[in-house]
Amino acid sequence: MPKNSVVFSEERCKGCELCVTACPKQIIRMGEHINTKGFHPATIVDPEKCIGCAFCARMCPDMVIEIHRE
Amino acid sequence: MPKNSVVFSEERCKGCELCVTACPKQIIRMGEHINTKGFHPATIVDPEKCIGCAFCARMCPDMVIEIHRE
Amino acid sequence: MGELVLMKGNEAVAESAIRAGCRFFAGYPITPQNEIPEYMSRRMFEVGGQFIQAESEVSAINMIYGASGAGARCMTSSSSPGISLKQEGISYIAGAELPCVIVNMVRGGPGLGGIQPAQSDYFQATKGGGHGDYRLLVLAPASIQEAVDLTALAFDLADKYRNPVMILADATLGQAMEPVEFRHQAPDKLPAKPWATTGMKGRSPNIINSLYLIPEELEKHNLRLRDKYEAMKRDEVRYETSHLQDAEVVVVAYGTSARIARTAMEKARAEGLKVGMIRPISLFPFPTEAFDKAVKAGIREFLTIEMSTGQMVEDVRLATNGQAEVRFYGRVGGVLPVRDEIIAQLRKFTGGRCC
Amino acid sequence: MGELVLMKGNEAVAESAIRAGCRFFAGYPITPQNEIPEYMSRRMFEVGGQFIQAESEVSAINMIYGASGAGARCMTSSSSPGISLKQEGISYIAGAELPCVIVNMVRGGPGLGGIQPAQSDYFQATKGGGHGDYRLLVLAPASIQEAVDLTALAFDLADKYRNPVMILADATLGQAMEPVEFRHQAPDKLPAKPWATTGMKGRSPNIINSLYLIPEELEKHNLRLRDKYEAMKRDEVRYETSHLQDAEVVVVAYGTSARIARTAMEKARAEGLKVGMIRPISLFPFPTEAFDKAVKAGIREFLTIEMSTGQMVEDVRLATNGQAEVRFYGRVGGVLPVRDEIIAQLRKFTGGRCC
Amino acid sequence: MTHEVIMAGFGGQGVMLVGQLLAYSGMLEGKKVSWMPSYGPEMRGGTANCSVVVSGEEVGSPVVSEPTAVIIMNRPSLDKFEGKVVKGGVLIINSSLVDRQVQRGDVTVIEVPANDIATELGDVRVANMVALGALIQATGAVKKESVLKALRKVLPERRHHLLPMNEAALDKGIGLAQQ
Amino acid sequence: MTHEVIMAGFGGQGVMLVGQLLAYSGMLEGKKVSWMPSYGPEMRGGTANCSVVVSGEEVGSPVVSEPTAVIIMNRPSLDKFEGKVVKGGVLIINSSLVDRQVQRGDVTVIEVPANDIATELGDVRVANMVALGALIQATGAVKKESVLKALRKVLPERRHHLLPMNEAALDKGIGLAQQ
Amino acid sequence: MQVIAKRPMALTDVPTHYCPGCTHGIIHRLVAEAIDELGLNEKTIGVAPVGCAVLAYKYFNVDMHEASHGRAPAVATGIKRVLPENIVFTYQGDGDLASIGTAEIVHAAARGENITVIFVNNAIYGMTGGQMAPTTLIGQRTTTSPDGRMVERAGYPVRVSEMLSTLDGAAYIARVAVTDPANVNKAKKAVLKAFRTQVERKGFALVELLSTCPTNWGLSPREAIDWLKESMMAYYPLGVFKDTTGEGETK
Amino acid sequence: MQVIAKRPMALTDVPTHYCPGCTHGIIHRLVAEAIDELGLNEKTIGVAPVGCAVLAYKYFNVDMHEASHGRAPAVATGIKRVLPENIVFTYQGDGDLASIGTAEIVHAAARGENITVIFVNNAIYGMTGGQMAPTTLIGQRTTTSPDGRMVERAGYPVRVSEMLSTLDGAAYIARVAVTDPANVNKAKKAVLKAFRTQVERKGFALVELLSTCPTNWGLSPREAIDWLKESMMAYYPLGVFKDTTGEGETK
Ligand SMILES: Cc1ncc(C[n+]2csc(CCOP(=O)(O)OP(=O)(O)O)c2C)c(N)n1
Ligand SMILES: Cc1ncc(C[n+]2csc(CCOP(=O)(O)OP(=O)(O)O)c2C)c(N)n1
Ligand code: SF4
Ligand code: SF4
Ligand code: SF4
Ligand code: SF4
Ligand code: SF4
Ligand code: SF4
Ligand SMILES: [Mg+2]
Ligand SMILES: [Mg+2]
Question: How large is the ipTM?
Answer without folding.
Answer: 0.97
